[in-house]
Amino acid sequence: MARRPFHVVEEGGRLQEETLTSDRVARWDHRDDMEALKALANRIAKLPPAERRALPLDEEALAQFENLANAALKPERRRSLMRAKLLLAHADMDVLHAVLEGGGAAALAARAADSWRDRIVAGDDAVLTSFLAAHPGGDRQALRAAARDARGAGPPAKRAALRLLKLVREAAGGGGAAADAADDAEAED
Fold first, then answer.
1. CATH 1.10.60 region(s) of the chain?
2. Averaged in consecutive runs of 10 residues, what is the pLDDT profile of the chain (189 residues)?
3. What is the pTM of this model?
4. Which CATH architecture has domain 102-188?
5. 168 and 128 in contact (C-beta within 8 Å)?
6. 20-29 burial string, b = 16+ CB within 10 Å, else e?
């Protein structure tokens, strides 16, 4: 059992212990994250090669997962797994989980649009600029106005967030009748 660091303070003539707070990640939290990455890496390595190549990973990560899948000896497999976990830590986990859960291309596009919307609302103009650099077909003025309105509170902000999501989907080329119908149903709730 790990001891949490503390220090003693004197308050009103009595000594009290206070737990120190830190910005560091606790070792057990880091261990749990690494175990989850290990399980995900092993799951990806067990996929057939065609499915593995369809995942939204860069070439280096795909090559590493190919090495991991073909590694037979324990030391080689261990090294490949460690490298795969490092590469996997930089991937977009929401999108990767959506693809692995069998959502397909439509779910992948929806997750990517949701992710962009959340980043645009939480960020500033730099995030919007990076989105428009990746998707040059977007309407900068409409996106900026919708993002500004979505940062508010209440029902108008929710409507603005849905409008922003629709604009992001259109700019990314994922907008369609099914997505618009889902937005309309969500707006009525």
1. 102-188
2. 53 56 70 87 86 83 90 88 88 79 68 85 87 87 91 87 91 58 47
3. 0.45
4. Orthogonal Bundle (1.10)
5. no
6. eeeeeeeeee
